[in-house]
Amino acid sequence: MATTRTATTHWEGTLFEGAGQVTLESSGVGTYDVSWPARAEEANGKTSPEELIAAAHSSCFSMAFSNGLAKAGTPATSLDTRAAVDFTPGTGITGIKLTVRGVVEGISNEDFVAAAEAAKEGCPVSQALAGTTITLDAALS
User: Fold this and answer.
1) In what order do the strands lie in the sheet with 19-24?
2) DSSP state, residue 31
3) Cα 141 from Cα 137, distance rounded (Å)
4) SS3 66
5) Phi, psi at residue 114, to the nearest 5°?
6) Euclidean distance between CA atoms 10 and 92, whole angstroms
7) What is the pTM (predicted TM-score) of this model?
8) What whole-number distance in Å separates Cα of residue 124 and Cα of residue 115?
9) b/e per residue, 80-119, with b = 16+ CB within 10 A?
């Protein structure tokens, strides 16, 4: 059964002088300010498309990784994932680095890294970002 999640953005003004607000409609968890300076310079309490992509990617990867580990008979005690999305004005998103540290009983670091790579490839957000360089740094804690 497919699900659809929605977000909306209201923007006023030009790219460089304007500003907007993105609302996470499906969950209703909030409305967040966005602006070009928050995207290309300092965040200053505002979010950006790249930060939202990082949030989506880190959570999706963690879910895929957790599922893969459980299916292999080595469920994770914990996984801590960071997604860093690089943005260059005029070029766009130039790369994403996933860093994951985990506590998993009964698995070697080599098998942990292999499972992390499989999760990176299988994660729906990774697949949606096909064509973007996505690197992974995985290790047991």
Assistant:
1) 7-12, 19-24, 30-35
2) E
3) 12
4) helix
5) -60, -40
6) 21
7) 0.92
8) 16
9) ebebebebeeeeebeebebebebebeebeeeebbebbeeb
Amino acid identity at 70? A
The helix (H) or strand (E) run that includes residue 21 is strand 19-24
Which of these, 29, 31, 30, 33, lies nearest to 46 by C-alpha position? 33
Contact between 102 and 80 under an 8 Å Cβ cutoff? The reply is: yes
Pairing verdict, β 30-35 and 19-24: antiparallel
Question: Taking Cα atoms as reference points, which of 105, 117, 113, 5 lies closest to residue 55?
Answer: 5
DSSP β-ladder status, 92-104 and 134-140: parallel
Look up residue 64 and give its DSSP letter: H
Q: Which residue has the tokens 């300010």?
A: 33
- Tens of pLDDT, residue by residue over 30-41, are 999 999 999 999
Which residues lie closer than 8 Å to 40 by C-beta, 6 or more apart?
A: 87, 89
User: 2 vs 7, 83, 94, 118, 121, CA distance in Å?
Assistant: 17, 26, 30, 23, 21
pLDDT digits (tens, 9 = 90+) for 52-71: 999 999 999 999 999 999 99
